[in-house]
């Protein structure tokens, strides 16, 4: 359970990075 949660958190971080990049591009 904890492992899955950690993996999900990592995925969320990646998504946030993509969003930040899009904002910077703008």
Provide tags for this entry.
26 residues, mainly alpha, rod-shaped
Reported for the largest beta sheet, the result is: none
Element pattern in H and E: H
Q: Can you count the helices?
A: 1
Number of strands: 0
Number of domains: 1
Structural class: mainly alpha
The rough form would be described as rod-shaped
Query: Which regions contain 5 or more consecutive residues with pLDDT less than 50?
Result: none
Helix content: over 70%
Give me the Rg, rounded: 12 Å
Strand content bin: under 5%
Q: What's the N-to-C terminus distance?
A: 38 Å
What is the typical, i.e. mean, pLDDT? 63
What does this structure look like?
With 26 residues, the chain is mainly alpha-helical. The radius of gyration is 12 Å and the shape is rod-shaped. The model has no long low-confidence stretch (mean pLDDT 63).
In short:
Residues 1-26 are annotated as: Disordered. The model has no long low-confidence stretch (mean pLDDT 63).
Please describe the topology of this protein.
Elements: H1 2-25
């Amino acid at each position: 359970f904890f492992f899955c949660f950690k993996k999900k958190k990592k995925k969320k971080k990646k998504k946030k990075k993509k969003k930040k990049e899009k904002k910077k591009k703008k």
